Each structure stands twice: as C-alpha cells, then as structure tokens.
Amino acid sequence: MTTPPVLKRGLVKIQFIASAHCIAIEYAEEKHMTISSTPGTQKARKEDLSSYPARIIGITIAACLIFWVFVFNDSGWGPNLTPLSNQLHIPLVAVGLFYVLWSTGYLPGALIGGIMLDRYGPRRVFFGAALIVFGGISSIFLGLLLPHLVPVVFLLIFAGLAGVGGGIIDASTNGLISAVYASRRGVALNLFNLLYPLGGVVVALIDAGLLTLFHNDPRPAFLFTLCFIVGALCSLFGVPGKYRIGTGTGQTREDSSEPAPIRSRFIPPAHRYNETIQRFLSLVITLAPVIGVMMLTAGISASVRTWAPAYLHVAFGQTPAVAAVLSSITWALSAASRLGAAALILRIGSWRMVMLGILVALLGLIVMMLSPNAFIATLAIARTSIGLSPLFATCLTIGSEQVGRSPGSVAGILLFTVGSSTAFCSWIFGFLLNTTGPTWAALFCFSSVFLGGLMALRLRNS
To answer: Contact 70/408 with Cβ under 8 angstroms?
Structure first.
C-alpha cells in the first residue's frame, strides 16, 4: 500500500519541525550553560594565578618572611632565657616555662593551621597568625616594661597565646610550599626549612649584639622581633586574596602537571562533619609511623637548639652574650645540613636520609656528653643539629607522599606532633639540666633519638 503524496509531504514537514525544535532546544541549553558558566570560568582564570611565575615568586617570598616570624620568636627564646631570669628575678627553671608554654600554644595552632590553609587560603591565614604572634609578644614586651604591674603568670599566658600563632604559621607555610612545589617536594621542603637555622643564626647574632649593648636586657630583642613582624606583614600584598591550594582553581602548574606519587591509599576530601572526622582519622592512621619518628626526634632537635645557650652557661659558665654567639655556630652548621640534605635526598632517598641524620645525631650526643670545654660542646651540639635538622622536612615529605593530597592537613598533623614532642622534651631537658646536670640532659636526648631510629626502620618501605 502506497502513501499518498500529500501525506508524505505532511510527514516530511512534521519531521523537519521536530528536528528544528530539537536543535533550538539544544542550542538554548548550550547557550544557557555557556552564559551561566562564564562567570565561573572567568573567576577560575582570575584565581589560577599560578600560571604566572611572578605570582609564584611573590607567594614564596611572603611564605618565607612569614615563616621567619615564627623562626625569630621560636629561636629567640634560647638567647633570652638567662636575661629573662635576671630581669624577672625568677629561677632559670621557671623561665623555661616561657618556651614550654610557647610550645604548648603551638600545638592547637599547628593542628588548625593546615586545615585553615586548605579552606581559607594563605593570605588570610598568614595575616591572622602574624597578628596573634604580634599580640602575644607585644604583651610580654609591655609586661617587661612594667614588671611590677604585670605578674609573671600573665606573661606566661601571653607566651602561650603567641605560640598559637606560631603553630598556625609553621603549619600553613609548610603546607603551602608542599603544594606549590609538589613535583619536587623533598627538595623544596628542605630548602624552605633551611630558613629555620638561617633565621636562628640571624636572631642569635642580633640578640647577642643587643644583649651586649644593653647589658643583658631582653627588652630590645623583643622590640626587634615586633618590628620584623610589621615588616613581614607588608609582604602579604604579594599573595592574591582568592588564591587557594590543592585541586581546583588555585592549583599550580606543579600540582596539575606532575602530581605527587601516591604511596598509600587515596584519602578523598571531606564535605561534612562526619566525613571530616573520618578523613582526619584516616590521615592519622596513614601517618602513624611518621608520627612516631617525629615524636621521638623533633622535640630533641628543638630542645637542643633552644637550650644550647643555657646549656653552655650552666655547664661551662659562659656569659649570655658569649653563649648566644657560640649557639650561632650551631645554627650556621644546621643551615648547611639543610642545604646538603636538599641535594642528597635526590640521590639516596627519603628513608636513607632519615637514618643517616639519626646516626649523625647520635654521634653528636655522645661527644656532647664527653665534652671537656665549651668549644667542643658547641661543635657537638652543632653535629647533633646537623643530623636532626633535615628530619622534619624529610618526614613531612614521606608523609605527604603517603597521603597524596591535603598538604595543609598533613603538615598540620605532623607539626602538632612536633609541637607535642617539643613541649615535653623541652621541659624534661630544662628540668634535667638545672637539677641533675648537663650529662643527664644529653643522655635523655640520646635515648629518645635512639628509639626514634628504631621506629624509623618501619619507614623503609615508604
């Protein structure tokens, strides 16, 4: 049966109209999607500032200067402990509580600093953390100007408050560098943490000069630190306000082209409270071997550096200014070790770098216990610092590669471990130094590092 010509023409018209209607709908939907996505696309292009090397340089410089805010405060306690004891007329053991409470305040700061970096970006986090440090140190400075009006207890509280800002700075700056230079994370983190001993050298020499000029008065040293914080805040103009790390619009070239190798299970991002808790627990479980090593070694590294001037003063009767100058030798050699570790880690790998550092530190602690004079003791402390200094950046590299993402959270967890270890080890070291003697303090350090070496054997497969 044949179809009439009129009916054929009608069917052809209906098919043509239906095709035209479908094309119109598809065009309208495509145009609507294009229009609705245009602002997001433009915003992404604006936020994807990592494509410009000048922006990366500006972000890196800001991270370095803000990191030095933490370094100058963390390292500045060592040369100023003995002058603070004289200024406040309290025992050296009690003055050691300033650094203990600074380290205690560091703990929550380090824990939330990485999370805040992942969520709010570096500019806001750096600015807020630097203001917290400035507020705590300026309060201590005012308390030293008016010692009869401000009790020592309040000064200790201010030290803990400043420590919160220091922990946020340490976690967020390391997390930022870990994300920006993900393709060469091990080298970048060791070079970045080279700023810690370099800053220690600078602050030790400056504090030694100020203590000499002002007759062991610690207040000019605190004033210098406050001035530096104000200068470092000016560098934040080089950090874009909407810049974010990780996957997405703020991702850098290094992140997108050469992602970090995932050595363990992939941990996805969290969007709800329960998912956040689960992700946090997964991170802790994954990082457990690294946490164990850092718990036993990181606190010893910080305690030896911080207490070096007091150790030389108690063990060999050195004046605070001379002890500060001698401790600057320790910081200088520690800086050299970070530079050497950045080059050596490419050849021998992260795990061998950790084991080599522990062996060098153990030899330094043995010489430290047997030192007959201040110069040999200084070299022994320097040798210990040479071994322990690269361990943090190397362990952070191992942990970041095991997890595979969330560099801010990983840095926050590991730095919380460092802060916990520092607070405990610093108090124990100071207590042993001022009660049983310097030999027992060095023996405590040796035992802890030795146990850390045994724990590091579990990192071999990492």
So the answer is: no
Q: What's the pLDDT tens digit per position in 295-347? A: 899 889 888 877 888 888 888 888 877 877 777 777 777 777 777 877 788 78
Asked if residue 176 belongs to a domain, the reply is yes
Q: Assess if residue 9 is contained within a domain.
A: no
Where are the strands (E) in 188-332, listed by range? Answer: none
Domain count, the chain: 1
Which residue segment(s) compose the domain that 290 sits in? Answer: 52-260+271-459
Integer angstrom CA distances of residue 144 from 90, 111, 309: 13, 30, 21
CATH number at residue 433: 1.20.1250.20
CB-based contact 388:449 (threshold 8 Å): yes
Q: Which residues have a Cβ under 8 Å from the Cβ of 243 and sit 6 or more positions away?
A: 47, 49, 55, 59, 121, 122, 123, 250
CB 163, CB 236: distance < 8 Å: no
Instruction: Name which of 66, 79, 102, 71 is nearest 221 in CA terms.
Output: 79
Q: For residues 310 and 98, what is the distance between their CA atoms, to the nearest angstrom?
A: 14
Q: Which has the closest alpha carbon to 50: 236, 247, 253?
A: 253
Q: Is the full-model pTM beyond 0.90?
A: no
Q: For the chain, what's the residue count?
A: 462
Minimal CA–CA distance to 338: which of 134, 458, 159, 194?
194
Determine, yes or no, domain membership for 390.
Answer: yes
Which residue matches tokens 């362990």?
395
Residue 419 domain-assigned? yes
